[in-house]
Amino acid sequence: MRFNGFLKISWVLIAWLALGLAGCEGDDGSDGATGPAGQDGADGADGADGADGQDLTAVITIGDGSALTEEEIEELGKLQAVITGVTVASPPVVDFTVTDANGNPAQGIASGYVWFTFAKLVPNTDPDVNGGLPYWQSYVNRSEDVADNANGRGSDVLDLAVQATTDSRFSGGSHVEVAPGQYQYTFGTDVANVTSPIAVAWEPNLTHRVGLEIRLDGEGEVPLAPDNPVFDFVPDGGAGSGITKDILDTDKCNGCHYEFAFHGGPRKTMEYCVTCHNPGTVDQDSGENLDMAAMLHSVHMGEDRAGAVPYIIWGFSDFSHDYSEVTYPQSKTYCETCHTASAAAPDGDNWNAAATAKTCGGCHADGLLAANFDAVTGQAEYQFDHAVSDVPALGPADDGLCNDCHLGNINTAGDALSIHSSIAGDDRARAEAGDNFVFSILGATNVGPGLIPTVRILVTDPDGVAYDILNDPEFDSVVVTRTVWFSVRVRTTTCRYRPSRL
Ligand code: HEC
Ligand code: HEC
Ligand code: HEC
Ligand code: HEC
Ligand code: HEC
Q1: Mutational pocket test of ligand 2: of 162, 273, 326, the residue with most ligand atoms within 8 Å of the beta carbon
Q2: Fewer beta carbons within 10 angstroms: which end of the chain, N or C?
Q3: pLDDT at position 502, please?
């Protein structure tokens, strides 16, 4: 194998090592699988639990979580919540059940500690709105203004912006427990009459989504918080929006992240995130639109955006979240790492046919133009400026027109897949042409708590020949970076919760 003087190889190797924590008490991992069966109701739980010899006599009352002991938190485990029905009698009424990790009813959750979102799926085709793509719009909103940074933080690009939020005890919502582990929540927000901070038209003929999070006090907040269930329905019982927008399966994210615990812990699933992170939510400080596509592309572009257009969100209480150091462990041209259609994400292939200024501009931030910010909502008009491209004469393109050129192989620009899989010198194109070194993990030993793993890897050159990276002088050359990254995924049983970070 020859190297020319400009060749720079960055070796990125991700190894998923599942390290079981043998030190955890009770090896109950496999019993968890019987949990869902217990959902049938309070009386169904006994059979399943008899087998693991747990003490069923003591019912743990969850309350607001603050009085739970460490043992009780461990025994309850990660809760499971299911929304079983929604009726909209102006303020919506939501039926939901909560079980513990063993499938027993999770009892006594204090009113006010379960928070809800409520959004409609707008089958938009107006090119001036969200680039012509359908979008979620929340009925529950608040506004952020300059007064928010009296604490001296924030940058106030905008005077005012609207943000989706939850319905909770702070907006007059409350629940009752109608049977052990079965609850009924009544919203504080009258969704049929939303006028503040912006009017949101009640459109019962569209597809709607209700989601929830359980946000307890005390040590149980993160480990007990269930995956956020959502419930899609059409209030007037008709056909709904005529489209769906299930683009991304949380499992795709968890391939790297293991498990999310955002916004303090209880926000974990993509289908829940998007009820707030849609085009209606804007960061007043930075002026960034917090739609999931624009935000997530920007976050993972991290260090590559840092120089020209760093991505900084001034979050709750205006704390700065600067993503300039996010180092993505793969070429970003592998869109399919996040985007692939599946049963959980039937619209997972949309990405290749949904170019808009914001979706592409999250990564290609140097060309993203935002202007004419609305003084109340913070919404902007977006364009993509081709001054940064190989065809600068194209200049700024209006949002909504991108697919004229970036769909299929029209007009030489090509669609996202053909573009991103054929960029000369990019890791993806090299790999697909068989021009890359190939790394395989042969095995790992010495894995477990307190141990330092040993991982055996095989490196083959583009001809498929095993390569000695330790003794080849070419690899000591200054033009070659030799970085081998190992991401270690740690699997625990029930004794500790995991941070969201890698
Ligand atoms: C190929 C691996 C990979 C995939 C897939 C991935 N991420 Fe990340 N993500 C990272 C890395 C690496 C970081 C930087 C880690 C850090 O700073 O803690 C990161 C950071 C983040 C951050 C900012 C850090 C924080 O804690 O606030 C968010 C938010 C995030 N990812 C969400 C997602 C979501 C949602 C998905 C799925 C749509 C996803 N990620 C898919 C690797 C990945
Ligand atoms: C109930 C609404 C809501 C839900 C649900 C929600 N977010 Fe947010 N999120 C917001 C708002 C509003 C902001 C901006 C706050 C600001 O600018 O003051 C935000 C900001 C963020 C930020 C920027 C940093 C920060 O913490 O402010 C990240 C990253 C983020 N959200 C990720 C997620 C992910 C991932 C999910 C789902 C697992 C999620 N959010 C679910 C409303 C929500
Ligand atoms: C780290 C994860 C991640 C990667 C990698 C990624 N995306 Fe995305 N993408 C997202 C998220 C999250 C959304 C928003 C999903 C939602 O709204 O439900 C999104 C949405 C989109 C959309 C909008 C789809 C629609 O119908 O609204 C497009 C277009 C898109 N991505 C293009 C791309 C392209 C092109 C690439 C590769 C060059 C890419 N994405 C790589 C996370 C990712
Ligand atoms: C997840 C991040 C990401 C998203 C989203 C994304 N791109 Fe890219 N794109 C890249 C990277 C990385 C490259 C490699 C060259 C570079 O760094 O500019 C690239 C390269 C390109 C190129 C080739 C430019 C060149 O210099 O060779 C075009 C054209 C392009 N993208 C168009 C798009 C369009 C259109 C969209 C929206 C559908 C999009 N991209 C969305 C990351 C992204
Ligand atoms: C009239 C046709 C046309 C329209 C409309 C158009 N583009 Fe392009 N775009 C191109 C061509 C041609 C290139 C150069 C392709 C290449 O370098 O491979 C390009 C390049 C790009 C790139 C790569 C930029 C870089 O850094 O090299 C991005 C991102 C992009 N376009 C996004 C968009 C978005 C977003 C829209 C809509 C707001 C849009 N384009 C509308 C034709 C168009």
Answers
A1: 273
A2: N
A3: 31
